[in-house]
Amino acid sequence: MTGVDSAGSVGLVIPFVEVFEEPLTLACGRTLDRFELVLETYGVLNADASNAILICHALSGNHHAAGFHSRDERKPGWWDVAIGPGKAIDTDRFFVVSVNNLGGCHGSTGPASINPATGSPWGPDFPQIQIDDWVESQRRLAQRLGISRWAAVIGGSLGGMQALQWAVSYPDWLDHCVVLASAPRLSAQNIAFNEIARHAILSDPDWLDGHYYQNDRIPEKGLGLARMVGHLTYMSADGMSDKFGRELREGSLGSEESDAVVFQVESYLRYQGAQFSTRFDANTYMLMTRALDFFDISRDHDGDLRRALANTTASFLVLSFSSDWRFSPARSQELVDALLAEGKPVTYADIEANEGHDSFLIDVPGYLPLFTAYMARVGC
Amino acid sequence: MTGVDSAGSVGLVIPFVEVFEEPLTLACGRTLDRFELVLETYGVLNADASNAILICHALSGNHHAAGFHSRDERKPGWWDVAIGPGKAIDTDRFFVVSVNNLGGCHGSTGPASINPATGSPWGPDFPQIQIDDWVESQRRLAQRLGISRWAAVIGGSLGGMQALQWAVSYPDWLDHCVVLASAPRLSAQNIAFNEIARHAILSDPDWLDGHYYQNDRIPEKGLGLARMVGHLTYMSADGMSDKFGRELREGSLGSEESDAVVFQVESYLRYQGAQFSTRFDANTYMLMTRALDFFDISRDHDGDLRRALANTTASFLVLSFSSDWRFSPARSQELVDALLAEGKPVTYADIEANEGHDSFLIDVPGYLPLFTAYMARVGC
């Protein structure tokens, strides 16, 4: 049984907005005079505010991590497999905070917001947010909510990098740090895939140097193409073979039309790209991929990962997935090795899974039981 | 020493065109009333025409495989490391034929040629060529040159598929079949990457449904993007890290410009894309990638690779490269296993190399000595 009223679901959730009027100085040196964050919470904050968990979303994610916004909503939030009563992130025990990142396009202040200095949407003039800025804005949010320490900060992919940044920037602010399908920094190949995605957006004539809002245009072809590249790299070669094989959508092998879609995998990717471009903002995509590329937890320590992690006090759970080639198990092991070398408490597993980078979003065998077992220790 | 007059170079070469006035019925059922092939040859055909070698080029290749077209040419042909006096494909011993594939954009009949029925360029109306058609056209070329049997048919990547098709379609026509960095068919992931490349071209407003020639337009952004995707998949993650690391092109980490190129790898990829779009034709790119996707040597045998290879009589050399993830060693091993199961003579090696799919074009340690040793047996 799935749906709003099913067991294991947080049910109907209502996002809300917190407004911050104190200026926020960003890592790039610029200042946001004010900003808003949209968020959802699940579960109940206990009396001493010791059961709060922060969920950090990935590149294309948002604050809607669990439950349903309405009875008509077809699919629950993006991490409903992991968040809910009795689930790994058990909302019977924890107060879960899920926020749309600053610079996002789902309600938090971002490129589509009005720049008070001009009265027009920021567009590409929105400051280039870095992961430190997310941590800083989330810390203000925590204070607003009466939380001075997270029981755990949890994220996958880009979200895992935020969790890691929390552990490094504010060791006193979290007990546990959960880093899934992530990496301490991007590789040249990672950056190159993001660059191609950005280049696809930049090449779209509807991009208009990022000032498309005012012109009622959307660079949907470029954004769709960017998503196709991204989506493809989140799947594994074997997983794709299992799912699509070389199946033809129609018997048109000798087709005369050069743009005829003939393989199922093509039709699937085009659909994913087209869908995405209706629900995501191109300026945010540019900003988020750039934040990813810039991230390097060891940047302030000459690339020395051990030194970067030396001051952390959190306990770590690090999980990788065997077929994830976008953020391969080797990247997680790099992180784990540095943590162990520094004598930090760390639990690590590489989960055997065929679903590539996307595995952390899916109920792949062995993953959620392990995650649940770890989370049982949190807050005890 | 490199250059026209250096030892090991075939020196100056002059491409020439062969015209075929006999209609060619294609695998798709359509007919080309006439066609032209542009080619180069290196070395001298011996008296009994037993020393001829056919080179099959890859997706973005052409007939210019070795030597120089002029004293001013900065770089030699694309496979000069392997072709020349004393090299693996020794032009002191062999007569080497290198032809631009039908449907290409470097002088053979293709989408940019005039469609005799309309008097305008074929564009997207050019028939969808399949690998069988290349073999057929190359067989006619061989007959024209007085060759009735190749000492070896050799190719890498898409070229390796052509070599394989030769061995299957015309077992009596070749002694040796050399298949480098290739596969018996494309995977869903392979197809998906090609689909993204095609989608990039289709999304370019200058594509004009493929009829851009008559409108003095070139879909160079789309083609450039397609090439960026391709190029990225031809390199390995480790190779890219070695070459680029996370090196910034300039100290612009907090850059205000969302389209600023900051990492070296980005600048490199953009350059590769832009260069390619000046020297390659988008319709040919569509056609070649589609030919790749369609290829499946076992198609006529219900996917049974062993049965597909049962009638071959050639000796095989199959080489893969450890870091090639576009056509991984496992794909070569699949081919080798089927050949061995059928009791065919096959030499196989997986070369340890960091350069990904491109390795077959490069003098990576261990590769050319092994290739040379194998070729020493050819024609003896």
Automatic annotation (TrEMBL), chains A, B:
Boundaries of every AB hydrolase-1 domain copy: 51-349
Binding residues annotated for substrate, in chain numbering: R227, D358
GO biological process: homoserine metabolic process; methionine biosynthetic process
Catalytic activity, as annotated: L-homoserine + succinyl-CoA = O-succinyl-L-homoserine + CoA
Top-tier EC class: transferase
GO cellular component: cytoplasm
Name of the protein in question: Homoserine O-succinyltransferase
Function: Transfers a succinyl group from succinyl-CoA to L-homoserine, forming succinyl-L-homoserine.
E.C. number: 2.3.1.46
Active-site residues annotated for this sequence: S157, D324, H357
Domain of life: Bacteria
Pathway named in the protein's UniProt entry: Amino-acid biosynthesis; L-methionine biosynthesis via de novo pathway; O-succinyl-L-homoserine from L-homoserine: step 1/1
Subunit composition and interactions: Homodimer.
Species this chain originates from: Luminiphilus syltensis NOR5-1B
